[in-house]
Amino acid sequence: MKTIAKQSLSISGLTLAIVFSFSDLGAAQAIPLTKASGGGERQPIVTGAGEVLYAAMAGTTRELFAVPVDGGTSTKLTTGRDIRLGYGTFDAWPSIASDATGSKIAFWDAVGVQVLDRTNNTVTTIATAASIPYPRLDAKGTDIVYQSTVQGHFEVFHRALNASSAVQITTASGEGRRFPDITANRIVYQKPVSGAHELFLYDLTSKTERQLTKNSGLGNRYGRFADDGTAVVYERTTTNDTREAWIVDLSSSTSRALTTFGTIGERLGAPTRDGYVFVQAWNRTYGITRVDSTGKEPDATIASGTTGGYRRPAADDHGHVVVYQDIDPATGMLEVWRARSCPSLDMSRYGTSGTPSVGTIGKDFESWYRCELTMGRESTVPSGRVAVLWIGGTQLSVNLGAIAPGNFLYADPIILLPTTVATNGDFSVDLLIPPTFAGTVYSQWGVLDKSANTLGIVTSSATKSTYR
Amino acid sequence: MTDDSIHDMTRQSLAVWTTALITLAVPLAARAAVAQTDLPARPNVPDMPAQLREVVFGGRKFPHVTASLGTTKVGAIHSLGKSLVLAWPVERPDVDSTATAVEQWLDSVSDDLGLHGFAPRHRETTTRYGLRAFDFDLVRDGATLMDSFVTVYCDESGIVGVHNHFPEPLASIAEMDATLRNQPSTVWFAKRRDDFAYDVVVARKSVEQNATHRIERIQTDRGVALERFEQKASFAGPMAAATFEEFSVPSGSFPDQIWADSAGRIWFSQPPNNQLTAYDPAKKTFQSYPTTGGSGPDGLWTDDKDRVWTGLYYSQQVGFLDVPTKVFTTIAAPYTPASLAIPSPSADGTVWVTDHQNNRISEYDPTLKKWVQSIVLPLSQTWVVQGVLDQGRGTVWFTGTFQHVMVAKEPGLAVRNVPVTSRGGPAFLAYHDDRVWFSEWYANRLGVVDVTNDKVTEYTYRAGENGGPMSILPDGRPVVGTRNAGYIVVFDPATQTFVDYKIPTSTGLKDGLTVSPDGSIWFTGTSTNRIARLILK
């Protein structure tokens, strides 16, 4: 099967579009990652290391599991813990949290708040709060926040994991839950103000609190930091008692609506670093809709739920992968499902780089923004020079010999993507990767340098990229 | 709690049980054998007319006795003070179905009703339970006794039943100063004592009007004893924004309590059929699962592992259906006789189960597979209905309908009774953000306890619609199902206002209402053999 992939290329602000074809190994779609997980919810989360963490029954107890994000064998991470989950009308908030890589996982059981350190294979009791503490780890896995009751009210606690005790952040907060979240040195949580829960931001450095929202209406806010820490996604009750996802900018404290669904149901927004927010959308059952907080892209339906329970979407940094819970139609049990909006990518390097007449070609780098992949090279080549990325389907190792001593052709140049060297010496191109794109490609850079050799091109080492 | 301690507890309560056994006059084996249909006939006690079954909460399950009202032999339910709370004649007295005739008859039997000198005065005539309902205030010295009444239910042949809502047990009645008599602001008020008997005292009623509400306050010598809000605006909700869906139950009858599991399937109990039934809203299919013969699955609650817990009223057990495996497990009550009714969660992963009839709450640990404790409630005949958890404090709150109390069980402490001074009969309840909301079986009011100070406040909704089952929406709005014409009533705590939605056809709402994770309101039409959903947008 062949598929046509459209790729965009930005050069100095000018966007070109080229069309090329690759072998397609199958369209991306939602797949179940688990089976026979038992009663109750799964509450999955996805880590930057390509794993999905979730809760499932193991005999009579509920334990933590991990499964590769593209499917495979599940690994049981705890034994005999019987971890607890918030569930039901007022405890829709996710109960499992991890650092960015999933090496540390926070949960709670009958003893209290626990952190599983998968590196050391240890479980550490952080606090004895065992009633819906909803612990949250920061991305680095160095700090944790949770809620615990003090004189009958839930209060926010913070603890550096290497500290011996926690610090109480809020006092006399009043009714309801706090649902704290943490990023870097800031904590967001909700407290009642004039009959409505409002979001507050606490700065751990200055030890100051700031109210972020007002007039948010009935219900919980479920505030959660966007992964870049510049905003908080939350939800509020609006006209006709319907629920919408909102976002508040932390620098300006201005709020705006992300959705205008006009329906019942909790949104439980899962933000990403790249501005996508994945929310529950209700149409007889909960589905999942991707909304773009930057307003560039229209809403996109990610999944249509099959039953009336929560979907609880969670996404990776770029929104490539959304995990959620839905039933296995064969058993009726809630299972972990994964939907991909962009292929997974495994990269490996081979070959050596040639030597330009001025400077050197350094190591390669890549980064994602949504489904746009930036591939580039560090260098000390003067700015303004032209560099070309060529991409092919065959791995080569052709010594360019006399016309370019010390240079090799490592990939067949089917596609040529030119760019210029930036002032810092870096050069890169942006590739819009189609959601269904799959296969292996080989790429290599060449810097136009007529002083370097007869060919006038200095080649780089190469990259093997496998998209699934 | 060890088995020995449970035995000790049982011994301590032997006298209570002996009394209950005698009063019940229903052999346990007989109860289990007939649970497929209804309670057994009691020797020499006329059957309660079907129309009166829901007049008193749990009326069918209370001990029924014989008594007299004047020369009229009646079957009856005794009140706490042994006067009659509900009575139905063996042979109809010769009384016309008119307000005047009924009032004259009531005057003649007021001593037998235990009205202590209060005279019934006709207030209004309505239709309830398919009968003509003559409502009477109780008046003495020209002042009305707050929240007390006698209702006489009639059909075309005369009196079907009498409901006597007089405060019991009564400790004293004050003397009214002559200057206060026949004053509009003077009322009698049944004030709860520390021993939970009533002193009927003289009180002052004041009414404040603001833009949205009429606020009624009752002041006694100890300050404001009761505060009640009645909105001025219409109750009718925007039907254009509401969608009702009704589904006929294909197997069995009497859909009772209802709950959603984690996948959004809707579970409900069917006591007469000894089964639990699931409705899949996506597939629009029903699937029933048997409990055990003669068990009478009553209350129903689904836990976080999708175990559908149910009180097995007639087999002295609690049971749970494991949804993934469909295995039904039963657990014997830690005492006998037992009539386990409605399960609810604790903060520790245990399950509390009420026993209306035997005045107990019991805690079961599914992990240890043993009963942790079983508590005989300090007030006799509390008629404890349902529990709900305050997760912040770990307190489990229960409704005590017959004693008009909210019962708080805090971890490690003895149970505490919070009186509901208006005596509306707290029936079902829900918790959110430091407040326990409760419906009132005998009034068109929604009550709320502020758990930080035990203050009770009440809000009045559409007249003529007494409370039934309730739940709470994800945004914190309480929802009550009413039992006369049948409305789903939604309260906004921010504006203190109600909107209600008339149930199109299913007026048999009784004990079952829940909110599924997506915010849909589900309820059972017990007498119409339906379940229904209300979507508010």
What would you say this structure looks like, in words?
Chain A is mainly β and 468 residues long. Chain A has 2 domains: 2-25 and 345-467, Immunoglobulin-like, CATH 2.60.40; 31-340, Neuraminidase, CATH 2.120.10. Chain A contains no helices and 40 strands. Chain A has strands at 2-11, 14-23, 31-32, 45-46, 51-58, 61-68, 75-76, 97-98, 104-108, 113-117, 122-127, 136-137, 143-150, 153-160, 167-168, 181-183, 186-193, 196-203, 208-211, 224-225, 231-237, 243-249, 255-257, 270-271, 276-283, 285-292, 300-303, 314-315, 321-327, 334-340, 345-350, 361-369, 372-379, 386-392, 395-399, 408-411, 415-420, 427-432, 439-448, 457-467. Mean pLDDT of chain A is 91; it is low at 1-28. Chain B is mainly beta and 537 residues long. In chain B, 8% of the residues lie in helices and 47% in strands. The longest helix of chain B has 11 residues, at 14-24. Chain B is globular. Classes of the chains: A mainly beta (468), B mainly beta (537). Chains A and B meet through loops of A and loops of B.
Oligomer: heterodimer
The domain tally of chain B reads: 3
Number of strands of chain A: 40
| Average pLDDT level of chain A | 91
Task: Please give the largest β-sheet of chain B.
Answer: 17 strands, mixed
Biggest sheet architecture of chain A: 5 strands, antiparallel
Beta content of chain A comes to: over 45%
Q: Which short descriptors sum up this protein?
A:
heterodimer, A: 468 residues, mainly beta, Immunoglobulin-like, Neuraminidase, 2 domains, 5-stranded antiparallel β-sheet, 4-stranded antiparallel β-sheet, 50% strand, disordered N terminus, B: 537 residues, TATA-Binding Protein, Methylamine Dehydrogenase, Chain H, 17-stranded mixed β-sheet, 5 helices, 41 strands, 47% strand
List the helices and strands and how they pair.
The complex is a heterodimer of chains A (468) and B (537).
Chain A: E1 2-11, E2 14-23, E3 31-32, E4 45-46, E5 51-58, E6 61-68, E7 75-76, E8 97-98, E9 104-108, E10 113-117, E11 122-127, E12 136-137, E13 143-150, E14 153-160, E15 167-168, E16 181-183, E17 186-193, E18 196-203, E19 208-211, E20 224-225, E21 231-237, E22 243-249, E23 255-257, E24 270-271, E25 276-283, E26 285-292, E27 300-303, E28 314-315, E29 321-327, E30 334-340, E31 345-350, E32 361-369, E33 372-379, E34 386-392, E35 395-399, E36 408-411, E37 415-420, E38 427-432, E39 439-448, E40 457-467
Antiparallel strand pairs in A: 1-2, 3-30, 4-5, 5-6, 6-7, 8-9, 9-10, 10-11, 12-13, 13-14, 14-15, 16-17, 17-18, 18-19, 20-21, 21-22, 22-23, 24-25, 25-26, 26-27, 28-29, 29-30, 31-40, 32-33, 33-38, 34-37, 34-39, 35-36, 39-40
Chain B: H1 3-12, H2 14-24, H3 28-34, E1 65-69, E2 72-78, E3 84-89, H4 99-108, H5 110-113, E4 119-128, E5 131-140, E6 143-145, E7 149-155, E8 158-165, E9 170-173, E10 186-192, E11 198-209, E12 213-220, E13 223-231, E14 243-248, E15 258-260, E16 266-270, E17 275-280, E18 285-290, E19 297-302, E20 307-312, E21 317-322, E22 327-332, E23 343-345, E24 351-355, E25 360-365, E26 370-376, E27 384-390, E28 395-400, E29 405-409, E30 416-419, E31 426-432, E32 435-440, E33 445-450, E34 455-460, E35 467-472, E36 478-482, E37 487-492, E38 497-502, E39 509-515, E40 521-525, E41 530-535
Parallel strand pairs in B: 6-10, 9-11, 13-34
Antiparallel strand pairs in B: 1-2, 2-3, 3-8, 4-5, 5-6, 5-7, 7-8, 10-11, 11-12, 12-13, 14-41, 15-16, 16-17, 17-18, 19-20, 20-21, 21-22, 23-24, 24-25, 25-26, 27-28, 28-29, 29-30, 31-32, 32-33, 33-34, 35-36, 36-37, 37-38, 39-40, 40-41
